[in-house]
């Protein structure tokens, strides 16, 4: 864990290093992924079966090997303990309600020159969702990816997920049932992304691919960007907690650890104006982390990537927060409004002392798929818009063309595009 | 030019080949671009000067070599002939008005569980616009990229443009003045994209890079996606005209040629229910194209990529149009409303007989940067949203946390993330 104070002479250098530091794994998988993608493109299901046998130790022979049936998902949902099923229901309802309000309005109007203009939003035909296998198979991620697609009106919702040795996670299947997933294919890795993008004999191609994955999955999405739409390539998770000394240090320590337990490359940062409070939090992080079932990961993350920054006043925290552009920002103060007003770059913000980031991971409603690695400077969390596209439209009558057509002719001629000019001027005669 | 009829036995095969055909140039520049990007990242302005000397025959020594001053842009604007200046003004006004209506609304509400939820949109800090050199330096493209950024509220607007031998296009400078561009750097190619993404000694980095370019520029954007935000990677332009036999064949021929004159890889497609009309249009394309200053390009495009499809009824055109997902679609019929209602995938639609696509290139108002190469299945034209990002926010008081917190605890425990659960359950005591 790194400790900085804004009054240190070396602060600016150390903070700049923090902002510019990359925590992404540097595995170069580009060539491997290109080979896999090309092979799935050319050989379809045969290539999928080969890679799945090799990487997931799973033989794709019968339909039952390839797909998980909707009945299995329903059975998994119905088999959940009631409190857990209720929690999943509540999460799904709240996520759906929040995302339903994101549906964009169409436009259709005629302006002063008599030109009819507008824009029409429509869902994509089909969306593919990647769900990682093993420990990282989170039902909450499935809901956060599938529900916005469903709200957008996507007709065909396809999940791909590696099932090592044929094993799948019943909680994920339950979530798939709840979200109304149409197909679940037992494939993973770069080969699954290629199958979604190009289609194979069994799997019809989709239009958009979202969802988290390892370095191979991320690189496949990057390489296929343009063949399909993709969500932002995600890096390790991160939290920035801005807290005064009046917080319970145990609460803040738990918030820092909730990011740290995700992955050793996750990053938890505390900025406070109270050095004694920072000491208390550090102490509680050590105490709490020792008791976690996830302690190996959480302790490694905190040791290697944890940061505590002491400032003189919390106002100084905001320019630092804007440079960090963190995925999650907690403003743990009595009245967060003025700090929030100055915050320019953040994926999602958690206001006040009673809003732990984890409520946003599960049940608050806004999406938990958020820009990481300083990308909140330019990117947004996943939304209904990622599963829709906008078509603009224009309609002129002869009067409207007479009003604006001559300017188009002048500009086309100036750009050296005479056929553009002709197509307008012929209609002006 | 390829001619198909829906009643041909081989139609489905030929049409599928058309839909799946790639017109992108297959130059593999990936390794070259990776080298350039890495060198600009490490060596900054030194690398920029070397590449600019080599590729653009332009020496970057003094400030005047590096930058085009705002005064030069103002002088270029004031030096335009009055009709051309008026046309540029009209275009800028109409583009601005259309895009101002795209500004998204923030959300801030408290739901039935007492949870405050919302989303706040803010512009990125800085945007970089690529403007190609030479013939493809279009002032209309500068307006279409710069004005949405300005409307979004972007504070710093940076243009990069190669100035071969130090030459720049006065119309582009005039458009830069009109759009309020803050900086113009005389650099181009992959090296310019790398400079915008990483920053150099002279050039501060930006957050989003948009604008058209050659294969090197497109590949650099693809490689730097995630370091900066980018707009969709663009391929060759295309138009699909759906027309009945009551159109003036000269008008439709001009519309087809207005795409063909862009580039030999551009594609113009006519679908009509009148075979005799198709013959007339073919004839007029030949006549008109012979008289164009752009005939070499237009004739090559029409010969190699032009398509005419005869259908039995125009209703049959719509499923074909949805598979083509063209950048531009004209519906040249008396009442286009029912055809338009069935159209699912198109970048921009031009309704009726008096709406040539070229009015959309210049003065209608909607953006002319549109998804190409069937990407209208999942992508939209450039908009104000490309220069903004959304931050979600959540605020709970103890009552709201008591209402939804227990579900978060249950889900966190089920996912094996105890620190997530702790951060909520501690606050519930």
Indicate the topology.
Two copies of one chain form a homodimer.
Chain A lengths: L1 E4 L5 H10 L9 H27 L6 H4 L3 H9 L3 H19 L6 E4 L5 E8 L2 E5 L8 H14 L3 E5 L9 H10 L3 E3 L3 H10 L9 E3 L4 H10 L4 E2 L7 E6 L5 H12 L6 E6 L2 H16 L4 H11 L1 E4 L6 H8 L3 E5 L4 H6 L5 E4 L5 H6 L25 E8 L2 H17 L3 H11 L1
Parallel strand pairs in A: 1-11, 4-5, 4-7, 5-6, 7-8, 9-10, 9-12, 10-11, 12-13
Antiparallel strand pairs in A: 2-3, 3-14
Helix pairs in contact in A: 2-8, 2-9, 4-7, 5-6, 6-7, 8-9, 10-11, 10-12, 16-17
Task: Write structural notes for this entry.
Two copies of one chain form a homodimer. The first copy, chain A, has helices at residues 11-20, 30-56, 63-66, 70-78, 82-100, 139-152, 170-179, 189-198, 215-224, 249-260, 275-290, 295-305, 317-324, 337-342, 357-362, 398-414, 418-428, and strands spanning 2-5, 107-110, 116-123, 126-130, 156-160, 183-185, 208-210, 229-230, 238-243, 267-272, 307-310, 328-332, 348-351, 388-395. The first copy, chain A, has 429 residues and is of the alpha/beta class. Chain A has three domains: 2-24 and 235-364, Nitrogenase molybdenum iron protein domain (Rossmann fold), CATH 3.40.50.1980; 30-230, Rossmann fold; 396-428, no CATH class. In chain A, helix 2 crosses helix 8 (189-198) and helix 10 (249-260) packs across helix 11. At the A-B interface, helix 5, strand 3, helix 10, strand 13 and helix 15 of A face helix 5, strand 3, helix 10, strand 13 and helix 15 of B. Chains A, B: Its cofactor is Zn(2+). Chains A, B: GO terms for molecular function: histidinol dehydrogenase activity; NAD binding; zinc ion binding.
């Amino acid at each position: 864990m790194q400790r900085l104070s804004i009054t240190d002479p070396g602060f600016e250098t150390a903070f700049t290093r923090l902002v510019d530091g990359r925590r992404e794994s540097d595995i170069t998988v580009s060539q491997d992924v290109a080979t896999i993608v090309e092979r799935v493109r050319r050989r379809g299901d045969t290539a999928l079966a080969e890679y799945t046998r090799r990487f997931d130790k799973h033989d794709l022979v019968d339909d039952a090997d390839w797909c998980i049936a909707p009945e299995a998902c329903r059975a998994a949902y119905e088999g959940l303990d009631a409190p857990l099923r209720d929690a999943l229901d509540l999460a799904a309802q709240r996520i759906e309600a929040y995302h339903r309000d994101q549906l964009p309005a169409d436009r259709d109007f005629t302006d002063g020159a008599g030109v009819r203009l507008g824009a029409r939003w429509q869902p994509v035909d089909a969306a593919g969702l990647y769900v990682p296998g093993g420990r990282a198979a989170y039902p909450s991620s499935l809901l956060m990816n599938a529900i916005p697609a469903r709200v957008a009106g996507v007709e065909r919702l396809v999940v791909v997920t590696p099932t090592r040795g044929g094993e799948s996670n019943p909680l994920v299947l339950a979530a798939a049932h709840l979200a109304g997933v149409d197909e679940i294919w037992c494939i993973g890795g770069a080969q699954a992304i290629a199958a979604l993008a190009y289609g194979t004999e069994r799997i019809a191609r989709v239009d958009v691919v979202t969802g988290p994955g390892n370095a191979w999955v991320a690189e496949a999405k990057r390489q296929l960007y343009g063949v399909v739409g993709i969500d932002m390539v995600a890096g390790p998770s991160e939290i920035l907690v801005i807290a005064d000394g009046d917080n319970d240090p145990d609460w803040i320590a738990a918030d820092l650890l909730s990011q740290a337990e995700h992955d050793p490359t996750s990053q938890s940062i505390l900025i406070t104006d109270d050095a004694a409070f920072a000491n208390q939090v550090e102490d509680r992080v050590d105490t709490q982390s020792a008791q976690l079932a996830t302690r190996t990961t959480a302790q490694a993350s905190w040791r290697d990537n944890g940061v505590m920054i002491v400032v003189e006043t919390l106002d100084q925290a905001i320019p630092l927060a804007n440079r960090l552009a963190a995925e999650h920002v907690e403003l743990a103060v009595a009245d967060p409004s003025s700090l929030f007003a100055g915050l320019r770059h953040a994926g999602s913000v958690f206001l006040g002392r009673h809003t732990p980031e984890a409520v946003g991971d599960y049940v608050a409603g806004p999406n938990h798929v958020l820009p990481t690695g300083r990308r909140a400077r330019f990117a947004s969390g996943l939304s209904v818009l990622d599963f829709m596209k906008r078509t603009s439209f224009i309609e002129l009558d002869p009067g409207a063309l007479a009003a604006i057509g001559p300017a188009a002719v002048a500009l086309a001629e100036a750009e050296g595009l005479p056929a553009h000019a002709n197509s307008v001027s012929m209609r002006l005669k």
